[in-house]
Amino acid sequence: DADLLRRVLANLLGNSLKPSRPESAIQVRAALAAEGGAVQVDVVDEGEGIPEAYHQKVFEKFGQVETARPGPRLNKGLGLTFCKLAVEAHGGRIWVQSAVGRGSTFSFTVPLGAEVGADAPGG
User: In terms of residue numbers, what domain contains 35?
Assistant: First the structure.
């Protein structure tokens, strides 16, 4: 369902804005996926980056990255879990490529013409 995928994209964009400097760019790219029959969407930021040890954890319920940034955490660690569930409900997958100090690229694929399953979040 298009609404769920819009929410996924909005969540990824929101997450990219949080660690980014005001003057930095955030890119959104979409193209046919290499495996064919699917579209791939990438959200690229110039933020702090995510240590490799957290690349899977960020998609887990309440999973958060430990940062050196002072102050309270503003998120609850559920947004990327929602994204993972929504993308997988469409038959796709989601992942992150990131390195500390180099920003992050969150990517997801969904099959073209995918229909959401009855167990999808919010659906």
Answer: 2-111
Structural domain contains residue 123? no
Spatial contact of 121 and 89, defined as CB atoms under 8 Å apart: yes
Query: 46 vs 54, 69, 93, 107, CA distance in Å?
Result: 18, 16, 23, 15
77 dihedral zone (left: phi>0; alpha: psi -120 to 50; beta): left
Domain assignment of residue 120, yes or no: no
Sheet holding 93-98, edge to edge: 27-32, 38-44, 104-111, 93-98
In a domain, residue 118? The reply is: no
Tell me, rounded to whole angstroms, the distance of Cα 75 from its chain centroid. Answer: 14
Is 74 within the bounds of a domain? yes
Number of domains making up the chain: 1
User: Whole-model pTM?
Assistant: 0.80
The 3-state DSSP class for residue 19 equals: coil
Q: Answer yes or no: are the C-beta atoms of 47 and 18 closer than 8 Å.
A: yes
pLDDT tens column, 48-89:
888 888 888 888 776 555 555 544 444 456 889 999 999 999
> How far does Cα 54 stand from its chain's mean position?
13
